[in-house]
Every structure is written in structure tokens, then in C-alpha cells.
UniProtKB/TrEMBL annotation:
Keyword check for Isomerase: yes
HAMAP family with a match to the protein in the record: PGAM_GpmA (MF_01039)
Catalytic site: H9 (tele-phosphohistidine intermediate), E86 (proton donor/acceptor)
Its EC number(s): 5.4.2.11
NCBIfam families hit by this protein: pgm_1
Similarity annotation: Belongs to the phosphoglycerate mutase family. BPG-dependent PGAM subfamily.
Residues with site note (Transition state stabilizer): H158
Protein known as: 2,3-bisphosphoglycerate-dependent phosphoglycerate mutase
Keywords on record: Gluconeogenesis, Glycolysis, Isomerase
Isomerase among keywords: yes
Recorded metabolic or biological pathway in which this protein acts: Carbohydrate degradation; glycolysis; pyruvate from D-glyceraldehyde 3-phosphate: step 3/5
Length: 207
């Protein structure tokens, strides 16, 4: 029974500073590095055959730290692709979330952050729907075939790219996904059958 392990990267420096990060390639904070290490310690008993990450360093380094802490030091086959990147926050990238709420209003910022199909301002701004439009085809073309081949797969990515995957796996509606929040550094493990259907899922631990 193959496993799919989803991990949102540890806290980044801009998470700490309460900034919209998106595609900006900021590093992990010291707390984020510790979250990655703790995630790895909880993954010691989980087999991993292949690793997928985004191309952003906070996801790449989370995977490296977690795998080292899990004792999985062998060179695992790894793919990195921007299809797994965080959603692009457009003109909001780099802005402080509280200051943005003061400027535009709490309700508008909540819509930009949590709605399914309303993108933030800016030509490159992506809604969750836009993010899913690149993340899910990649998942179905690359990750799902590995699972169907019986491999245990680790995916280290971002809040919204992972939300789009969970939305598909759990068959959530547009309304249900609005309440979905994936915490940093806590592995979410899916047990799947050979056809890729979900049998069960649970977080490895609670914080």
C-alpha cells in the first residue's frame, strides 16, 4: 500500500515577518529549520522512494533537513518543479499582511488569501484555482504514476500548492477548501491503493 507524504515547508523568514511570500525565494527561519528537523524525526519509520519539491529554497531545504533527521541519507531520486511552487501573490508579494489589511480592508485581504477563484492584484497574481491549474496536471503526470507503481512519495511544497492537491484527493468543494489550512512542518500521510484512491490520511503529530 503506497504512501503519499505531504509536507509544507517550515516557517520561512517572511512567514516570521508576516509578509506575502509567493514566488520570492526566501530562506527558512531558524524556527523553520527546527520544524523541518522535527518533521523528519517523525518520519523515521516511513519509507520514502522518491522526493518531489518546488524550486524554492524553503521547500528544498525543508526536504533536505527532514530526510537527514529521518536517517534517510541515501541519494533518493528527486524532482523539483515550479509547478509545485506557492501561488504567486502578484503585487502583494513582499508586503506586510497586517499593513495590507489596513490599506485594503480585512475583508478584501481575506478574499485574496482564502477565496478559491479571486486572484490578488497584479498581472502574475494567482488564485487557488490558478495554482491548481498547474499543480494538479503535474501531480497527475508525475507523482500519481509513481504511487500507482507502488512507490512511497514525499512531496515538500507550499500551503496553496498542497491545498490544491488535498482538495483533489479529499474531493473538497470550493467552499470546503476555504477552511483548509495546512500547517508548516507537519507531515500529512495518505495511504493509497494501487489505483491512487485514498484509503486513509492523517497528520503524523499535532503541534
Amino acid at each position: 500500500m503506497p504512501k503519499l507524504i505531504l509536507v509544507r515547508h517550515g516557517e520561512s523568514q517572511w512567514n516570521l515577518e508576516n509578509r506575502f511570500t509567493g514566488w520570492v525565494d526566501v530562506p527558512l527561519s531558524p524556527k523553520g529549520e527546527e520544524e523541518a528537523r522535527i518533521a523528519g524525526e517523525h518520519m523515521r519509520d516511513l519509507p520514502v522512494d522518491k522526493v518531489y519539491t518546488s524550486v524554492l529554497q524553503r521547500a528544498i531545504n525543508t526536504s533536505k533537513i527532514a530526510l537527514a533527521a529521518a536517517g534517510k541519507t541515501e541519494d533518493l531520486p528527486t524532482e523539483r518543479d515550479e509547478a509545485l511552487n506557492e501561488r504567486h501573490y502578484g503585487d502583494l508579494q513582499g508586503l506586510n499582511k497586517a499593513e495590507t489589511a489596513e490599506q485594503y480592508g480585512d475583508e478584501q485581504v481575506k478574499i485574496w488569501r482564502r477565496s478559491y477563484d479571486v486572484p490578488p492584484p497584479g498581472e502574475k497574481g494567482e488564485s487557488l484555482k490558478d495554482t491548481a491549474a498547474r499543480t494538479l496536471p503535474y501531480f497527475e503526470a508525475h507523482i500519481l504514476p509513481d504511487i500507482k507503481a507502488g512507490k512511497n512519495v514525499l512531496v515538500v511544497a507550499h500551503g496553496n500548492s498542497l491545498r490544491s492537491i488535498v482538495m483533489a484527493l479529499d474531493k473538497l468543494t470550493k467552499e470546503q477548501v476555504l477552511e483548509l489550512n495546512i500547517p508548516t512542518g507537519i507531515p500529512l500521510v495518505y495511504d493509497l491503493d494501487d489505483a491512487g484512491n485514498v484509503l486513509s490520511h492523517a497528520y503524523l503529530f499535532e503541534r
